[in-house]
Amino acid sequence: MGKRVALVLAGCGVFDGSEIHEASATLVHLSRGGAEVKIFAPNIEQRDVVNHLKGSPTDEKRNVLVESARLARGNIQDLAELKVGEFDAVIFPGGFGVAKNLCSWAVDGKNCTVNEHVNSTLQAFHRAKKPIGLCCISPVLAAKVFPGCEVTVGQDKNVDGRFPDAETASAIAELGCKHVCKDVSESHVDKANKIVTTCAFMCKAPLHEIFDGIGTMVEEVLKLA
Q: In 3D, which of 162, 166, 208, 201 has the Cα closest to residue 14?
């Protein structure tokens, strides 16, 4: 019997929602791993809506759950309805929506607040000793909710210009967590907390390398489940 995995989205689109390639890659690897997946998102208004052609904010209002339904092909539930007992693991893809909608990291950095349903979901899986997978910017959720945990967002220095957001690693360390430097093709497993992280688009790398790195995260999550 395949593992039951909850996937939590933050909208649809890299600049104001979930990163589409990361969400898709996660779903492909979960499918290949024989997992049964259900998709969730909080039923809240997005912090902002970005015109992805121009890269600038608009005056539109959009709902995170409604926008996430685009990625879920309509098969999605309100995050408030997630029951940890029905799942073996939870995974959060990245995208700026994580830092804008699931928490306020984009505005407040390490002083951010985490959405109540995101926080309760993370806490519930942690208490149940069930694995949590996170990629790209989403490891900051674990860093904020679980002081002392170990995560990776890639490198702590902008090596060869490939890690332009390397300062995120320092902010994670300031929260009392351990940042572990990893390349895009790797993931890090915090065995004590059952947290698996990989940097994905925090690294400027070819799409297939990001896809493969997410695959290592999914594989480790399924092993722990």
A: 201
Indicate the pairing of strand 188-190 with strand 195-198.
antiparallel
121-162 tens-digit pLDDT: 999 999 999 999 999 999 999 999 999 999 999 999 998 999
Residues annotated catalytic, as ranges:
136
Secondary structure (3-state) at 111: helix
How many domains is the chain partitioned into structurally? 1
- Region 17-21: mean pLDDT is 98
Which CATH number does the domain housing residue 60 bear? 3.40.50.880
The domain in which residue 60 lies consists of: 4-224
pLDDT given for residue 142 in this prediction: 98
Over residues 67-104, the pLDDT tens digits come to 999 999 999 999 999 999 999 999 999 999 999 999 99
95: burial class by Cβ within 10 Å (0-12, 13-18, 19+)?
buried
pLDDT band at 1 (very low <50, low <70, confident <90, very high): confident
195-221 b/e with 16+ CB inside 10 Å = b? bbbbbbbbbebeeeebbbbbbbbbbbb
